[in-house]
Amino acid sequence: MNVDWRNRFGRNWITSVRSQGGSQNCWAFATTALYEAMIRIEHYLWTRRSEGDLARGTGKQAWDLGNIGEGTIFAERYGLADPDCFPWSEAAALYTAVPHGANLKATPQSPTSDRSGRTMRIAAGATTSLTDPAQKKQWIDLVGPMAVLVVPPVDFGSLGSGIYKRTTHQLGGAHALLVVGFNDDERYWIVKNSWGPGWGDGGFGRVSYDDGLLEGPGFTGLRGTNPDPWAKRRLRNGVLIQGGNGALRNNFEMFIKVGMNVEHWYRENAASGTPWNRVGLVRSSDVWRDTFHDDVLDCPAAVQSTFGRNFELVYRTTFRYLRHVYYDQAGGLWNDATIFGPIDPVGVPGFIQSNCRGAPGDFEVVVVTQSGQAEHWTKHNSAPWMRPPGQWYLGERFGSAIGYGGPALVQIKMGATYSTSPENGATLSAGELHYIAAGTNGQMQHWRRWAGSSWSLLGTFGQNVASAPCMIEGTYGAGNEMGVGNFELCVAVGNQIEHWWRYNVSPGPWNKAAVFGADVRRVIGLIQSSYSTNLEVIAERTDGRYQHYWRDAAGWHTGVIIV
Amino acid sequence: MDNDAEQDVPKTIGELRRRLAELGNPWEVDPRLNDDDPLPDPPRGGQREEDVPEEARLPSLEPSTDLHGLLASEPPANPFLRERWVEAGLLDQDEAPGLALESGDEGEGEGSV
Q1: Residue contact B60–A130, C-beta within 8 A
Q2: Cβ contacts of B48 on chain A, cutoff 8 Å
Q3: Tens digits of residue pLDDT in A325-379
Q4: Nearest Cβ partner for B106 among A21, A25, A514
Q5: Phi and psi torsions of B84, nearest 5°
Q6: Out of A102, A158, A552, closest to residue B30 by CB
Q7: In 10 A of CB A279, how many CB atoms?
C-alpha cells in the first residue's frame, strides 16, 4: 500500500513547509503541522496555526527542548491559536511569564485579548500513540498524518533528493517530524520537516524502511479537531454559520426572520436525517437587557466572531437603522450592542469581521441606501482606537444605481501581502474586501477595496438580476493554507437560483455554473461546508418560507423547507 | 559517543558524497552544498525519550489492540476518507456520502467581467 497525504484523493491535505530557524522547537512545529493537517482532513478547511502559540504557551522559549506530548496537552487545555493572535518568533515572549511546572499551568498572557475565540479546540485524550509499524500505517491510511520524535543520524541534515538511508551510526539530537505517508512498494516513509523548503524535496523527505529509523518510535495521531470561526470565516456568509457544536463539530447554525423577530435554528449534522431544530428567539432572557424584540424588518447577516465564538447579528430594525446584537456564549445571553447605519437601509447588509487593522479584527458592514449607493461602516475592536470603542462609523459611500444588497461582502486572501520571514517562511497579511450588489439595470456590480484605499468597480456580470446575491471565498482553487480560493456566488433570478464562480488565483471572468430551484425570492445564506464539502444554500421563498439547497457530486439538490 | 562511531562520521560533504557512492545509498546530498562544506547540522530540539517528563508521556496503544475496532467508533466526516473506510470494511457502502463538485465542474457559463 502507498499513502501520501500531499496528493491523496487527487488533492493536497498538508500545509506549507515552515522553518524553525535557529530554535530548538521542532516539537512545536511537528505538533502544529499535525493539527493543521487534521483540521484540513476533518473539516476540509485550510488554516494556519501558530507554532509560537504552542511553544511559548507550554512555557518554553526558542532554546528549550520539548516533546510532542506537552504540545498536545497544551492544545487540549488551552486550544491552539493562529499567528495573528500570537505569532511565531525566536524572540523570548511574555507568554512564559509563568513558567510551567509539572502540571503545565502556564496561562496565556500576551496573545490578543480574543484568543479564546480564535483557537482550534480539541477534547482531552484526543491523541493516540502507536508503536506497531502496521498500526501506524493503518492510522495514516484511515485517519491522517502522525507526529514522531526520532533520533536521526548526523547526515540527516544533508538530505537532498532520493530515499534517505544512513551513512553513519553517529546520531544527532532528537528531532520531531510529521509523517505524511508511506510507500510499501519502494519501502519508505514520507516526512514533513521544519528545516524550510531547502531541505530534502521541498521540505519533505523520504526515509527508507531499511534502517528502522521510524519503525520503533511512537507515532502520535489525533482526531476530533474543532476549528474556530475565524478560520472558517471566508467559507460562509449571510444567515448560515457552521459552528463547532455537534458530534462532528460542524453543525449548521441559522438566523432567520420569523414574524417580527429573528429565530435561531440549527441542523444536527451527525444525527440521522440531519434534522433542523429551532433553538429559540433572538431576545435577551435578562429583563434588564430585553431591549430588542418585535423590531425585525429583514433577515440578519450573521458572524461568529473571535470574541468567545459569540454570534453577532446585524439586521434592519423598525427603528429605521441597523441593529447590532450579539450572543455572549459565556454568559448565555443575547445583548443589544447598538443601532447604527444609514436611515432606512435596503436589504440584508454585508457583514464580516476583518483583519484590516490586525487583531482582534474590526467589524465591517456594507449596506445599500435608499439613494442606490453603498455605505461601508466599521466598528473598531482593537487599539489604536481611531474611533471610540463600540462606535460604528461611516468610512465611505460608493457606487450608484444599486438596487439590491445582500450578504456578499468577503475579505479574500487575494491582495494580501506575503512577507517572507527568515524564521518561518511566508506569512499572510490582510487581504482585499470584495462586495457584489445587484444594480437597478439587472447586472451585478463587483466592487473591490484594497487595504487603505477606496472602493472601486471591477466590472459587471449577469443579467435580469432583481435580488441580492450571497457570496463566499471557497476552498476550490486554493492549493494550501496560503492559497486563494474561488468566489462562489448564488443569486435569485426569475424565481430560480443562479450559481456563479470566479477563479481567483489568476482572476478571470465570472462563470455561471448552474441554474436550480424554484419559487425563490432571494438567497440569504451560503456555506462551503465540511459536511461532504458541499455548497449549502438557504433561500427565502416567494411564499416567505425558507428552503435549503445543497450541491454534491451529482449537482444541486432541493432540500427541505425549514420553516 | 564511542570511537567507532566518531570515525564513522563523514566530516565534509565531499566525504559524504563518496560514502553514498560506496554504499550505493539511494539519495543525493543537497546540490547547493560544496564538497568542502562541513555537514549541515540544523537545530533539532526534541527531548530524548528518557528526558520526557512523566506527565507529558503519551501512553502507547498495545499492538494487540484491535485498531479498526477503536477507529470505527468515530467515522470521519471527510467524504473521501469515508469511501476509503468503505473499501477497508469499516463502513457500509450506503454510509459513504457523495463527493462534492468543484468550481467549474458544472461547465462554462457566460460572464462579462
Answers
A1: yes
A2: 151, 174
A3: 999 999 999 999 999 999 999 999 999 999 988 889 999 999 999 999 999 999 9
A4: A514
A5: -65, -40
A6: A158
A7: 13
Residue B52 CB partners (closer than 8 Å, separation 6+)? A67, A69
Residues A138, B81: C-beta atoms closer than 8 Å: no
Instruction: Kindly report, residue by residue over A177-227, the tens digit of the pLDDT.
Output: 999 999 999 999 999 999 999 999 999 999 999 999 999 999 999 999 999
User: How many inter-chain contacts (A to B, CB under 8 Å) are there?
Assistant: 263
Q: Which residues of B touch A105 (CB under 8 A)?
A: none
Q: Which are the contacts of A420, defined by CB distance < 8 A and separation ≥ 6?
A: A426
| Cis amide linkage into residue A145, ω under 30° from 0 | no
As to burial, measured by CB atoms within 10 angstroms (0-12 exposed, 13-18 middle, 19+ buried), residue A1 is: exposed
B110 and A512 in contact by Cβ < 8 A?
Answer: yes
Q: Return the beta strands (E) in A494-561 as ranges.
A: 496-502, 511-516, 520-528, 535-541, 546-552, 555-561
Task: Kindly list the domain boundaries of chain A, sorted by start residue.
Answer: 2-222, 233-487
Q: Do B45 and A459 touch (CB under 8 A)?
A: no
Q: Which CATH number fits domain A233-487: 2.60.40, 1.20.1260, 2.120.10, 2.60.120?
A: 2.120.10
Whole-number Å distance between alpha carbons of A456 and A452: 12
For cell 487599539, name the residue: A383
Task: Work out the minimum CA distance from A339 to partner chain B, whole angstroms.
Answer: 36
Question: A2-222: what fold?
Answer: Cathepsin B; Chain A (3.90.70)
Minimal Cβ distance to B23: which of A142, A167, A532 = A167
CA distance A410 to A165: 49
